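Apologies for my clumsy wording, but can you show me some protein sequence, whichever is easiest, together with the matching structure tokens, please?
=====
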Amino acid sequence: MDARLSFFADHLAERRSAPAAEPAPEPGKPMVKLTGFTRTFGTNTIIADLDLEIAEGEFVALLGRSGSGKTTLLRTLAGLDDPAGQQVQVPSSRAVVFQDARLLPWKKVWRNVALGLRGLTGRVRSKAEQALREVGLGHRLDAWPLTLSGGEAQRVALARALVREPELLLLDEPFSALDALTRLKMHDLTLALWKAHRPAVLMVTHDVDEAIALADRILVLDHGRIVTQERITAARGERADVARGLRLRLLGVLGGDAGQASVIQFPQSLEAFA
């Protein structure tokens, strides 16, 4: 068994030895609500009459082919695009984690996390340190960004987002540039932070299995419309039985290859790694 497969086996064993996760609670009040939202650029309609709700504390994954409108929707929810008087309800406290960490190389790690925070320097640094300890980087406070690995840089980006205590956390393919092993570790970290802070989450991803592993609900966007959605009631870590059928349905909607490889594995037993 090579190192990659050994990691997957060890990772699965760790998850099975941990207490079983509880299924997600029933959705609460809407934290995000769009009604009939439409976005056009010139003669091109990018999003068409879209209705969307995300409940407080809900983890939603958004799938879609390139050009389906995912980025436009994310920019609207992040406040980067003006909704132009349309019915868009989003909390004022929002944070975004992008595919690349977007750290300022001339600022030390803790100052990147504290970027934009107001208050006394000592108090701001204390908040940044606490956030970095949460993501396992308490020992890298004074490091320069260029000395970080890809996974460490993304953990700093998560700390920078969470230090603001957002009610809505937007994740724009934050793990796609990472290697498979680091990506799995980032999944576990993200879920732990989400359970601790309970923001509403919208995660854009191209990986169907990643969406199944992490989300309470999966949406598929196509030509600016939500063409299907799936709610997952099985506890995280116990989704092997539903993963294959759900994967096939989602790939069917996306027009993808049901046999394509993914970094996420849903084996029935450790023998699947042999």
The chain has two domains: 3-93+166-273, 102-164. Helices lie at 3-17, 70-78, 109-113, 121-134, 150-162, 180-197, 208-214, 240-254. The chain has a mean pLDDT of 84.
